[in-house]
């Protein structure tokens, strides 16, 4: 068809929710500095969130299947990378990655990206978007 590209690029997003708790605390700051930087999120007993994660893949729309990616495969990757290791967990105590990394939502997005990119076909992962609350959203694109 004239005027249309031979290959179409599409974006597919799958949304998944999970619940987890954590405490924002840096070993590089004093207790007082941690309280100033992280406020109530530095509570010694931690606090929890009902996170909503959007995983977006990008790629050519296959002319035979009509898909950027098989959604069943994307769901399986999300289960392995997000649900199994993170849902109903204490991020700081149950996820080894956060033993040395502060469990901010920014770092959580990096953690999810780094593990999703290993599971997905090369150059497919486009974006991880995490809604920590209704008003706080973090987006990461592997940069």
TrEMBL record:
Binds 1 zinc ion per subunit. Its cofactor is Zn(2+). It catalyses: 7,8-dihydroneopterin 3'-triphosphate = 6-pyruvoyl-5,6,7,8-tetrahydropterin + triphosphate + H(+). Zn(2+) binds at residues 22, 47, 49. The keyword Metal-binding applies. GO terms for molecular function: 6-pyruvoyltetrahydropterin synthase activity; metal ion binding. Keywords: Lyase, Metal-binding, Tetrahydrobiopterin biosynthesis, Zinc. It comes from the Eukaryota. The active site is at residues 41, 88, 132. Involved in the biosynthesis of tetrahydrobiopterin, an essential cofactor of aromatic amino acid hydroxylases. Catalyzes the transformation of 7,8-dihydroneopterin triphosphate into 6-pyruvoyl tetrahydropterin. This is 6-pyruvoyl tetrahydrobiopterin synthase. The gene is PTS.
């Amino acid at each position: 068809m004239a005027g249309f590209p031979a290959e179409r690029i599409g974006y597919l997003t799958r949304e998944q929710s999970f619940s987890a708790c954590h405490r924002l605390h840096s070993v590089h700051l004093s207790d007082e500095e941690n309280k100033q930087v992280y406020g109530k999120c530095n509570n010694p007993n931690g606090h929890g969130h009902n996170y909503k994660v959007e995983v977006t893949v990008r790629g050519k729309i296959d002319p035979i299947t009509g898909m950027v990616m098989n959604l069943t495969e994307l769901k399986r990757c999300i289960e392995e990378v997000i649900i199994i290791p993170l849902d109903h967990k204490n991020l700081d105590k149950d996820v080894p990655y956060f033993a040395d990394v502060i469990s901010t939502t920014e770092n959580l997005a990096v953690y999810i990206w780094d593990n999703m990119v290993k599971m997905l076909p090369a150059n497919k992962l486009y974006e991880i978007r995490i809604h920590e609350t209704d008003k706080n959203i973090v987006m990461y694109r592997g940069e």
